[in-house]
Amino acid sequence: MALIIDLKPGEKILVGNAVITNDDQRTRLHIAGDSPIMREKDVMKEEDITTPCKQVYFLIQCMYLARKPDIYFEKYFKIVKEIQNTAPSTSFLFMVINEKIIQGHYYKALKDAKELIQYEEDLIKKATDHG
Questions:
Q1: What one-character-per-residue DSSP string does 56-122 give?
Q2: How many CA atoms within 13 Å lie on the side-chain side of 19?
C-alpha cells in the first residue's frame, strides 16, 4: 500500500537521504517502499535542540533515518537515564518509546517523542510558574 502525501507549494519532505522540494503548486505523491519519509515540519535540526527531550527526539529521528540505527542507542539511553533521574514522572513515556525503539518502530517512537516534548514543556511551565 502506497503512502499518499499532499505537499503545499514549496513544502519539503525527506525520502531516505534525499530532500524533495515541491514546486509552486499543490502536489500529491504516492510513495511505495521502505525508505524513511519525514515532512519538513517534523524534522528537527541540531540547532533546534534546546532541551533534553528535544535531544531525545533528535536521536530517534537519527535512528529512523540511519542505515544503522544502533549507533545512536548508547547516546540515547544515556540521556534517557539522565532525564528519568531528573524527572521520574517521564518513566512511563519512556517505557512506551523504548518499546517501539527496541521493536524497530522508529517513526512511531518519534510520534511519542513529540508527546514527551510537550510533557517537558508543561513541566518547565509549572516549575517556572511556581518559582
A1: HHHHHHHHHH-SSGGGGHHHHHHHHHHHHHH-GGGHHHHHHHHHHHHTT-HHHHHHHHHHHHHHHHH
A2: 7
Do 29 and 57 lie in a common domain? no
Percent of the chain clearing pLDDT 90 (strictly above): 83
Are 34 and 54 in a shared domain?
no
28-84 tens-digit pLDDT: 989 888 889 999 999 999 999 999 999 999 999 999 999 999 999 999 999 999 999
Domain hosting residue 61, numbered range: 44-130
Cβ atoms within 10 Å, residue 128: 8
Same domain (yes/no): 33, 96: no
Q: What distance separates the 2 farthest-apart alpha carbons in the chain?
A: 51
Amino acid at 71: I
Q: Which residues pair with 14 in a beta bridge?
A: 19, 38
What is the layout of strands, in order, in the sheet containing 18-21? 18-21, 12-15, 37-39
Based on the structure, what is the number of domains in the chain? 2
Residues facing residue 62 across a β-bridge:
none
